[in-house]
Amino acid sequence: MPAGNFPPMGQPRITGINRIGLWALYMKEVRRFLKVQTQTVWAPAVTTLLFLIVFTVAMGRGDRLVLGVPFASFVAPGLIMMGMMQNAFANSGFSLLAGKLQGTIIDMLMPPLSEAELMIGIIAAALTRAVMVGCALALAMALWPGVSLSAAHPWAIVWFGLMGSTMLALGGLLTSMWAEKFDHNAAVTNFVVAPLTLLSGTFYVVHDLAPAFQTISRLNPFFYMISGFRFGFLGISDIGDTNGAVMGAAIGVGVLNIVLGAIAYALLRSGWKLKS
Asked: For this UniProt entry, which segments traverse the membrane (predicted)?
């Protein structure tokens, strides 16, 4: 073949988006968690469903109403969102960390993928797992006695579901770059993700808290994710009962994800704790 048919040495042959490589990375990540779907999809769904059972039995007796709806219907959307976010974090927080510990990180960094494509592949796989867990939870809770789920505002369900999962997926990616052992990842899960999720209004209305704790709750980004997601199902939330009232939160979580994405991209480009 004539030498003129080849690009000059050092000039990339793949220009634009490496669609084949990106798809291969995405499928690799999806197949990784699907191989153990009992642990990665169904076990989290069952665990979250147990929250519904326990809290409904403990706090939902006597036809208790919260925001004008039965307690079980109030808490169900928050539990779905909680399960989606936690599993998005768990999925994106594994790949790079496992590669660093097993010495196979070169398999992620050497293929002809840009930093943006690497990030998109990992985040997309995390979103896929989050959506699968969310669908499994929604189906189980819709069939559960006393739970009534209807799509009052579908746009809020889709937006806050994807934005909440993306935020935790980006958080997991940042954690996997920083962590040097699985204990570091577990520490972030146990001392950051779990408390922020459980104290975000999943099981209660923030208006019932003291003013100081209401302020703290409204500084928690998880509060807006869960309340916005609940608004999509019930048409009511701690944020407000109209599209206009929730729109500010929707824009805010989108901006937060852009900031987190820019940070993750910059760290990937620098090779922080990956190439050293």
From this structure: 41-58, 65-85, 118-144, 156-179, 191-210, 222-240, 246-268
User: How far is C-alpha 229 from the geometric centre of its chain's CA atoms?
Assistant: 13
Q: Which of 162, 123, 176, 139 is nearest to 48 (CA)?
A: 139
- Measure CA 90 to chain center: 9
Residue 147 is encoded by which pair of tokens? Answer: 């739970």
pLDDT in tens, 191-235: 999 999 988 988 888 888 888 988 888 899 999 999 999 999 999
CA 162/CA 79 separation, integer angstroms:
15
3-state helix, strand, coil in the chain (%, to 5): 70, 0, 25
Contact between 233 and 151 (Cβ < 8 Å): yes
> In angstroms, rounded to a whole number, what is the distance separating the alpha carbons of residues 197 and 207?
17
Q: Are 66 and 59 in contact (CB under 8 A)?
A: no
pTM greater than 0.85: yes
d(CA 262, CA 32): 26
Handedness of CA 2, 4, 6, 9 (dihedral sign): positive
Per-residue model confidence as pLDDT tens digits over 102-114 = 888 888 888 889 9
Query: Which pLDDT value is given to residue 5?
Result: 67
* Beta carbons of 147 and 76 less than 8 angstroms apart: yes
Element (H, E) at 66: strand 65-66
**Where do the domains of the chain lie?**
18-270
